[in-house]
Amino acid sequence: MNDYPFENEPWDRDSFETGSTKPPKSRSGLIAALLVAVIILGGVSSILSVMNIRLFRQLESQDGQSASVSFNENTLSTGETSGGQSGTVATSPGGNVQVDIQQTPEGVDNVPQAGGLSYQQIYAKAIPSVVSITCQLSGGSSTGTGVILSENGYIVTNCHVVNGAQSISVLLTDNRTFSAFVVGMDSVSDLAVLYVQATDLTPAEFGNSDSLKVGDAVAAIGDPLGAEFRGTMTDGIVSAINRDVVTGGRTMTLIQTNAALNSGNSGGPLLNCYGQVIGINTLKISAFVDDAGVEGLGFAIPSTTVKSVVDQLIAQGYVSGRPSLGISGETVSVLEQKLYRLPAGVLVSQVEEGSCADRAGIVQGDVIISAGGARVESAEALSTLLYQLDPGNSLELGIYRYRSGKQLSVTVILDEATGE
Questions:
Q1: Is 349 a catalytic site residue?
Q2: Which of 13, 175, 270, 363 is the most exposed place for a label (fewest CB within 10 A)?
Q3: What is the CB-side half-sphere exposure of residue 398 using CA atoms within 13 A?
Q4: CA–CA gap between residue 225 and residue 263 (Å, rounded)
Q5: Residue ranges of the alpha helices (H) in 62-191?
Q6: What count of other Cβ atoms lies within 10 Å of the Cβ of residue 99?
Q7: 100 catalytically annotated
Q8: CA–CA separation, 130 vs 147, rounded Å?
Q9: Which of 129, 169, 189, 266 is catalytic?
Q10: Do domains 126-195 and 209-304 have the same CATH topology?
Q11: Domain 323-416, CATH 2.30.42.10 — does that match?
Q12: Alpha-carbon distance 395 to 410, whole Å?
């Protein structure tokens, strides 16, 4: 009895899963067919060759026919070479060929709006009042733009341009350079006032941003990507007015424009069709917000807001009515949470002496984990809550004390920020 489970042919006792070992089939028929095909193709090729030879002989025997084919009168032609053989040669028509540049009329003034100035006039009027700002920081440098407020040295820019600067340099359009110091800053409105020792500056003309309408023509001047491209002007329209934008934990009411704004434009002017400053450029929506990319979403601080804030910064160095907790702090990173076993919150890095936080017993190294009963996990979240309050309001804070590992609750009476 055969114990092998498969019924193989008598000659196939050693088959494997990789294939059969049966004898190969005869392929003599296939070989014969291929030979016939080769013979047929050879005959067709011979017939075509004979026809091709006869065609060329007929062409050569035609009387009065030239062997050259001319593409045009003054370009390459196929004809007889110096050796008497047919070939392709370049022929020159002779004479000098030069590019003829005609007289062009001067550029026509581009008037963006009926009754307004041309863009050329807007630029000529505004550019002497625009300055380039370079700040030296502890970890490098930053650049921005500013607008001259007065002949005697006052300049407005964004708070984020000069915040944390160890030294500030201002470059005028006439290439003079001045050292500047901060008169006052307001992070809520993102405005700052600088001062340079000069008495012959050209102040900008400010217009009333309340008169703006959607569709009004505007232009922006600044230093996109730094001083290398300083004095760049871009144009657009007012895309929206009174647009609420949340940034850095605060809500700002801004002018929206599609005039191109880039890093370095911050602090520069947004101009109306009369060359008046109707806004201070402050931010743009980045392309990183959306995978599809974002273009034409820039924002400027209205001139009415600029006046209110700047007047107070010049007069007293701060804006009245801003609450202050009296601390410096930063968000506890995920790495710090794991490394030091800290909760998410705001790590207090400095406490101002005599401030409401100092009076409440908050110390350096504490972590603020809640405010007003709400969980606080970042410095931005804490700022958002503070911006909703006024000086004199009480605020209950939840504290994690790293030194003891305990949690406690304290109540502070908010001070008024004085910029000191």
A1: no
A2: 175
A3: 13
A4: 5
A5: 119-126, 159-162
A6: 4
A7: no
A8: 5
A9: 266
A10: yes
A11: yes
A12: 8
**Total count of residues recorded for the chain:** 420
Catalytic one among 129, 160, 187, 216?
160
CATH code of the region 209-304: 2.40.10.10
Query: Looking at the DSSP assignment, which residues form a beta bridge with residue 252?
Result: 245
Of these residues, 129, 169, 189, 190, which one is catalytic?
Answer: 190
Strands (E), 223-307: 232-247, 250-257, 269-271, 277-284, 298-302
Q: Which residue has the tokens 């030879």?
A: 53
Quick: pLDDT tens for 51-96: 554 544 554 454 444 444 333 444 444 444 444 444 444 455 555 6
Q: What is the pLDDT of residues 196-233, one digit of tens each?
A: 999 999 999 999 999 999 999 999 999 998 888 999 99
Write down the CATH number for the domain with range 126-195: 2.40.10.10
Three-class SS state of 305: helix
Phi, psi for residue 415 in degrees, rounded to 5? -85, 170
Opening angle at CA 260, ends 259 and 264, nearest 5? 125
Tens digits of residue pLDDT in 391-405? 999 999 999 998 899
pLDDT value, residue 295: 79
What residue ranges do the domains of the chain occupy? 126-195, 209-304, 323-416
Q: CA 393 → CA 251, 275, 329, 372, distances in Å?
A: 20, 43, 21, 11
Three-state DSSP at 128 gives helix
**Active-site residue, 12 included:** no
Nearest CA to 262 out of 236, 279, 289, 282 is that of 282
